Amino acid sequence: MTDWLAILEEHTVTGETMAREVPAMLGDPAISERQVRTLFSALETQADFAEKLRMALEKSGHDFPVVEAAERLEERYADLAAVVAEKLKALRQVTPD
To answer: Which of 20, 34, 45, 53 is the most buried (most CB within 10 A)?
Structure first.
């Protein structure tokens, strides 16, 4: 049986780390458009996974606080992806491909 709570805990820790590291990465003046695109893609993938995890937790009948934690994780990744998308947009305005 899949341990959804352990998966949620692991991905929550990763999400917290990303929330600290992404702004620092984006603040690096040497970051390239390619690196930002790669970061955006990774965050979108994580947001999609978090959504699937939330749905699995709901389907498995977990308590509301657990499902709510998964929703927060999903939102965190979506918010980070939005910030990265803004950086990508800014980079493209400066140096179009």
So the answer is: 53
Q: Tell me if 34 sits within 8 A of 65, measured CB to CB.
A: no
> What value, to the nearest 5°, has the Cα angle with vertex 82 and ends 80 and 83?
65
For the question of whether the overall pTM of this predicted structure is more than 0.85, the answer is yes
Length of the chain: 97
User: At 3, phi and psi to the nearest 5?
Assistant: -95, 85
Round the CA-based radius of gyration of the chain to a whole number and report it.
15
What is the span of the domain harbouring residue 38? 4-94
Could you give the number of structural domains in the chain? 1
Count CB-CB contacts under 10 A for residue 93: 8
Name the amino acid, one letter, at 16: E
Spatial distance between the Cα atoms of 26 and 34, rounded to a whole number of angstroms: 12
**Percentage of the chain exceeding pLDDT 90:** 80
Contact of 15 with 54, CB cutoff 8 Å: no
- As a dihedral over the C-alpha atoms of residue 42, residue 77, residue 18, residue 24, rounded to 10 degrees, the angle is 90
